[in-house]
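The protein record minuted underneath.
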Amino acid sequence: MSEHEHAGRCACGAVRFRLVGQPTDVIACHCQTCRRWSGYYWAATHVPRDALIIDAEAELAWWASSEFAERGFCSHCGSSLFYRRHDADRVSVAPGALDAPTHLATTAHICVAEAGDYYAIDPNTPRFPGPDTGS
C-alpha cells in the first residue's frame, strides 16, 4: 500500500475499504443524529467519493438518516463507517475505522450547540455552533 492509501475496516472485518489519496483532517460533529448514531459524537475525515474503494460492498448497509444524506454501516457488527450527502462529491469516513497510523488530527468541532452534556469539548480546537466551519 502506498503512503497515499489508507486501509480501514469495521469492527468484525466484514467491510473493508481503502482511501486512495490523502484524507482531510478530522472534524467532530456533535449533532443529535450523530450522537445517537454513534453513541457519543461522531468524527470524520473526508475524501472524494471516487477515492473510497469498498471491498465486500454487499456487507455494507445504508440508512437514509435525513432527506439529504445517508449513513453507511456494517450489516453484521453495526460499525458506523460512512456519511454522504446526496449533493456532495465527497464522503465522510470514520477515522476510528482506519488502520494506524493515520497521521490525522482533529481540527474542528461542529454542531456544538447540540453537544451532549456528558463530555467536554477541547477548548483549544475551533468550535462552531452549526454544521458550517466557515471554510
Remarks:
- The mean pLDDT is 94.
- The longest helix spans residues 32-38.
- The helical segments are 32-38.
- DSSP finds one helix and ten strands in the chain.
